[in-house]
Amino acid sequence: HSANCPYTCHHLCRRATRVSPSPVLNQKIQYKRTTLWPAQSLRRKHISHNTKTMKTILLLILAFPFLGAAGERCRGVPSLPVEAACRKACGTKLMHDMCMDTLRGGFDPSPSVHIEVTEYALLATHRALESYGATAAAAAELLRSGSLSGDERAAYNTCLTEYSYAVRCMEHVAGDMVARCRFAGLGEEYVRCVTYVEGCRDRLVRLKSSPLYAMNLVDRNKALLAYSLGQLLGSI
Q: InterPro entries attached here (predicted)?
């Protein structure tokens, strides 16, 4: 890692610290944007759209196929103790500490206990999805307020949309790829998930006093942690 990348695991520093995606990522990732309804004349449609978006996010999170320590194993994937996995995956103290807190919440951290890193990767995606859901719920609650400025309302609507894509993306990574030992293209999918979260961050950069700003930063770090643990699965 470098001094310009204090918050990320070292694998993704060069690709995910920019405010906007690089030209290479733009070729791989197609942003899906929705046209925002005019805030005054079509407020009811806003509320209906936001409600449907939140329901979709919650359904996707509830359907997440989390595998515990006794779950599926993938051929050729290494097994490591919790601390060794975090040390290998993360290059900063912040991310190492987050990794340890995350994995200790689901596995025995004893040095003698070796767990297949597939399970660590799945737990990290699960924690990221939980965090996404909390942020999306906060955005939906803020949008119910009648005292928002036009910029705030537009930003929160964008965030709610981006988070619906982020949830779908991370659920695809976990349920369709990692849980099924399908690692081809996995790295690009992780990057795409991070990019959706950053799409919200780009709209919040001028609203740093918003509670969503801090929540979004945490979500980004959790997405980066999921990616870095995913790197332990092999060459992705």
A: Invertase/methylesterase_inhib
Six token digits for residue 108:
């025995």
β-bridge partners, 80: 115
pLDDT digits (tens, 9 = 90+) for 159-200: 999 999 999 999 999 999 999 999 999 999 999 999 999 999
Stated pTM of the model:
0.73
The residue among 143, 161, 172, 157 whose CA lies nearest residue 61 is: 172
CA distance 222 to 64: 17
The full DSSP string for 13-76 is HHHH-SSS--HHHHHH------PPPPTTTTHHHHHHHHHHHHHHHHHHHHT-----TTS---TT
Give CA separation, 95 vs 9, 53, 87, 153, 170, in Å. Answer: 6, 30, 10, 32, 19
Contact 205, 19 (CB under 8 A): yes
Name 205's Cβ contacts closer than 8 Å, sequence gap at least 6.
19
What burial class does residue 65 get, using C-beta atoms within 10 Å of its C-beta: 0-12 exposed, 13-18 middle, 19+ buried? middle
For residue 35, the model assigns a pLDDT of: 32
Domains detected in the chain: 77-236 (1.20.140.40)
